[in-house]
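Sample entry (518 residues):
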Amino acid sequence: MDYKTLKMKKLLLIMLISISSPFVHANNISISNISVLANPSNTIKFDITWDNGWRSASANLSLDAAWVFFKYKDAFGNWNKLPLTNVGNIIPSGFLAGSSDSTGATLYRSSAGNGTTTLLNVQLGITTTQASGIFDIKAFAVEMVAASNFFGAFDFIPGYYAGDGSSTNSYPITFFNAQSSLVITDPLATPTSINSTFFTSTVFPNGYNPFICMKYELSQGGYRDFLNSLTYIQQANHIVPAPNATAGTAALYNLSRNYIKIKTPGIPNSTPAVFGCDANGNGIFDEAADGEWTACNYLNWIDQAAYMAWAGLRPMSELEFEKIARGPLLPVAGEYVWGNTNIFSGPPYYITTNLNQSSETVSNAALSPTGNAQYTLSYNAGGPLRNGPFATATSNRISSGGAYYGVMEMSGNLWERVITTGFLNFRNIQGDAIFINAQGYASVVDVASWPGMTAGSQGIIDGSQNANGLIYRGGAWDSPAATLRISDRSGLLVSNTNTDRSTMANVGVRGCRSRIGF
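Predicted structure, serialized as tokens:
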């Protein structure tokens, strides 16, 4: 964390770090030189850079983007969303910015290219109150991938395939096209029919409308930064111990490669705790080998919903999961996210090097045509690996274990909760108008709720309701190979509150956002 001071305004820079481009390593996304320009500009100004960015020139467009958002501390010590106004934006030549609301902005290339992506002197409009006043401000950036194949007009979204007709509980091989009247049957809710009205819905995230998706599963550094922006009361609902537990106490569980710990104890109902990562247990936090790049496990649905609400993201649907993984390509029976059925299998198992560092990698990973993933017949680490461990300077989609659009670890590492099509009442789920309340719970301002939301127009996700509507997809570090297949739907179909973190050593978080500005 980099602290800077300007005219009594403290600017705290937090980077939710990603680790590779479509199929190469070390993104190192970072924000620097942040300042606030008061009236008449009313903007927040900064530089942002990340390695190995890209935008393809093909009709099946593929590109990455930075999702940036900001928080400010109010007079009561609470971190709130710093609203963006979309007025007075200044974006460097060669780049574009998009935003549908005040939550944040996507920054991305306006034309084909690849390599280090650097935007200097970006300015985004903010409200006059925060531009002119004295506030602590935190800036966040996370790398996203555009998970849609389109070119030209925004409304031209070709169809895609869901299901391979082979994997457990797979959808039939069916081509979904916005102009068709095809009907498929969901094996988990037989005989539920899904027709063209469902697929052209503007509400349910069905994969037709473009969207952006986190390139990596949420890292432990990312969850640490989330916790460090909460009040004491809010923190208490997203960790296992009380926030005033002694320094060095595990925030979740000191098991299965989870390294988040209390760095500075909080004061009950007053001062929040400070969290850090400490993989080597030496009491010195956030060192180069303290594991902040490792995918974060032991997070329940309450934690995931709150993180996504805080970051301006939403859960993905299982239809989006398959589109991200497969793109517009024809299905292959039993395929993994890298597009074929070949997967590394030990013994010998993977040998990890540079353990717990940003460069943690697997020295004996397979080369094409065999794909790589962390699962029961490959792992030896006893937990998730860091994000992007198989991506190297020479890797391709197969050897990096990457999905069609460049999203990483969708097969293996950690299970991902997505919205199932198996429950009719959750096909109206929406992903916008969300925030976290004073207790730290996600609140959805809409009757079309997320799973587990209490009743009412401003319900909350606090663990009091069953989280029906969630299904686990993609497999994990302790899963059999078959569960890692794109179309496998044998993962847990949630029918309880999904709050027992102790059973979630193999569950992670990945958020999406409806496509903005591409």
